[in-house]
Amino acid sequence: MTFAVTNKFGAPMDVYLADPSDGAVYQELEGIGAGATLMTTVTLGNGRYRFECFPADESAVMGPTVTIGAASGISGTTPAVRPVTQADLIPVAKAYQAWVAGRLPVLRSQVGVLASDVAAGDTAKAKADWLTAHLTYETLGAAYDAFGDLDSAINAAPASDVPAAQDTNLTGFHKIEALLWSGAPAPASQAAVAGLLHAVDQLITQFATVDIDPNIIALRAHEIVENAIQFELNGTTDAGSHSNLATIGANLVGANETLNLLSALLVNRYPKLSSAKAALTAAQRLVTGFDHAGTWTPLDELTRAQRETLDAQLENLVELLAPIAAICDERVASQ
């Protein structure tokens, strides 16, 4: 069936074709502009259906219920997805917030060890402990919005037009990375680590008073992997350690945490959930294979076959994770 859906309100509108008994959605049209018409096609079997209209800043409008009772034998019907509500998402957000809150003291301790290494002049140990602390932070990707400006203070990427060690605006992990791997004088590294310690202390204090947006977790499930592809797989964040593959591994740990927390909501809503989990496990296994007792293969030392396999697995993973944001898009359940 093909429908022409026209927005006769004076504001953008979301429209759902839904089952009025349980709110399961067969088709979703988002952001239809005022006066605009969109065409949509669905294959419907026996059942009861109605259009549900949600104009911006106005009350929802429910269309009449229509019963289809002579559609037996139709194959390939459009699947329905039960809506996710704020009540569904809040426990996920609280669980994720508790997980992050538990990781921040670990991060603080690891940065403290790094500070001791730098103060002792042990560059080799400082490099190893820098990587440990940096990877802990890189697992927290779904919380970065809640970190605010402190995320940039802790983990801003190096500028593209100036060496990272000389970038006076760069702070945090990547500034320390540039100094350690370039052989900079110890006082410069000590100052940078002191700044990182201060930022992490501020983050711990700040995070105790904020709430993670419940809608963010599902969105970040695939954005974490997208960011790994965009910023790590091409090496733009490398300030000298050549540890991008290690960072990708940490990002996948973060994606896995979000996926695990969302699984209860997705199990009856996303038919490809098991495929997404399998793809994530496969990607983690592949990336872990580039870790050689703490020494990670640099990106430019990957063979062509290794690079093609890595690219393909991460792209497949992000495609499988992408629908989760739409499936978990919070909306008001049918009344």
Automatic annotation (TrEMBL):
Keywords: Lipoprotein, Signal
InterPro entries referenced in this protein's UniProt entry, alphabetically: EfeM/EfeO_iron_uptake, Imelysin-like, Imelysin-like_EfeO/Algp7, Imelysin_sf
Predominant location category: other
Keyword Lipoprotein attributed: yes
Domain of life: Bacteria
Family matches, as Pfam families: Peptidase_M75 (PF09375)
Domain Imelysin-like: 94-322
Family named by the database record: Belongs to the EfeM/EfeO family.
UniProt-recorded name of the protein: EfeM/EfeO family lipoprotein
Lineage of producing organism: Bacteria, Bacillati, Actinomycetota, Actinomycetes, Micromonosporales
